[in-house]
From TrEMBL:
Protein name: DUF6473 family protein
Domain DUF6473 intervals: 11-218
InterPro entries, A to Z: DUF6473
Organism: Rubellimicrobium aerolatum
Highest taxon in the source lineage: Bacteria
Length: 252
């Protein structure tokens, strides 16, 4: 697990582990019994460099335990591969799911590290045939890979972009099928053309029938103010999920 611990070196955060999970999460460790909210996602959810990330602010506002399951560079693939993380999500009364990681999941063109999803592992024969001019031996991260592919051949990159969007929707649907409908999807629409592949409105709409709600926050960054804005936008939808969950328990 030395490789995973290196993520936290110099962060000022004390990581914790839940059960036999192979993932490390932001501490302090929270209880996973009774009513709690699970926050699942990447860098925004983790809140590296932020004293009080939005899961902590939600906990204070709602008066409910909020478990921060954020992972740096993660897609939903990291959680699907970890039984303890999925158990924590299934046991939660409500889940906040950050819509991230379009390029950070294994697909028919390339594979990524099962825990550090931003780490590129290998290209498939299909991708090698599609981009014969690319030297994949020098690629370590998915961001490097995707920028290189886009620069090499913008027209052929459309094939990569479509494959990643299809894979992302399928993997997110798989997560939602396992966790259930009391999920609030947190989406930060990208403004401009910085990243090669981003979550589009169409991708979010494909998931809308399976979630309790969608919170879209365009232009929100990663700092303290951003986390306060995210928490404020999530309070209402998450509270509604908690109330619905309690009503279902009372009726059963």
């Amino acid at each position: 697990m030395k490789h995973d611990r290196s993520i936290w070196a110099g962060s000022g955060l004390a990581p914790c582990r839940y059960g036999a999970s192979r993932l490390l999460f932001r501490g302090p460790e929270r209880r996973l019994d009774g009513d709690y909210v699970a926050a699942v996602g990447g860098g925004l959810t983790l809140g590296r460099g932020v004293a009080e990330p939005f899961p902590a602010l939600l906990e204070a506002e709602l008066g409910e335990v909020c478990v921060n399951l954020g992972q740096p560079g993660a897609s939903v693939e990291a959680f699907l591969a970890d039984g303890e993380a999925m158990a924590a999500c299934r046991g939660a009364r409500a889940v906040v799911l950050e819509a991230v990681g379009v390029g950070n999941l294994s697909n028919r063109l390339y594979s990524v590290h099962p825990r550090r999803n931003d780490r590129f592992l290998r290209a498939s024969p299909v991708l090698r045939a599609l981009f014969p001019e690319m030297d994949f031996a020098e690629v370590c991260f998915t961001g490097h890979l995707l920028r290189g592919l886009r620069e090499a051949a913008p027209d052929r990159f459309d094939i990569v972009r479509e494959e990643l969007r299809i894979a992302w929707i399928a993997r997110m649907r798989g997560f939602l099928d396992l966790v259930g409908p009391r999920v609030v999807l947190l989406w930060r629409p990208e403004e401009g053309g910085g990243e090669p592949v981003t979550v589009t409105e169409g991708m979010v709409e494909a998931l809308r029938p399976r979630v309790a709600g969608v919170v879209a926050l365009p232009g929100v960054g990663m700092g303290e103010d951003a986390h306060r804005a995210v928490a404020a936008a999530l309070v209402g939808p998450v509270r509604a999920c908690l109330e619905e969950a309690r009503a279902a328990v009372a009726a059963s």
